[in-house]
Hints:
rod-shaped; binds heme C
Amino acid sequence: MSNHSPAVSASETPDAGLVEGAKRVAAMSAGAVVLIVGVLIALAVVMSPPDAQDARLSADAIAKRIARVGAVEVRDASAPATHTGEQVFAGQCSGCHASGALGAPKFGDKAAWSARIAKGFAALWESALHGKNAMPAQSGGQFTDLEVARGVVYMANAGGAKFPEPTESAKPAK
Ligand code: HEC
């Protein structure tokens, strides 16, 4: 029996050796896989901050673009008079008032403006908004009523008046 036992164990040994070898290969493969995965994870961790930053930056850029559009809308709603009297004059009034076309009082012509200025700012704004004789209504065009008021003040002051910058509350009743 003592001879048989080694024989048995000898015949078992190659199998056991193979199994042991296979286990070792498997363990090494597993170790290699773990190592590769670990390296990949480490690479992913190292690479991800710039990627994440890019994503954050483009999100910020988009947010800024959206905010800018929103800001313009808010500004339009809360402060409609975004053009100065000079800009309104150049854009909508100068066609007649620079040359005196249709009998319009000319810009800077104090003699032509003094009697009109004497009527007061509200009356002049009223005339400009709703029109007077050959002058068509200036309300409802590309400028707000308050911007038209700025145009009136710009022209009247150039004609000798000292009207202050108009506000919405100075608007004529009609
Ligand atoms: C199509 C020509 C024309 C345009 C454009 C025009 N006006 Fe006139 N405007 C006239 C004429 C003509 C008169 C003289 C009206 C009258 O008294 O018979 C006049 C008169 C006026 C008066 C004096 C009103 C009064 O009661 O005496 C004011 C103020 C005035 N215009 C402002 C403006 C402003 C501000 C604009 C631009 C937003 C403008 N006008 C654009 C033709 C024009």
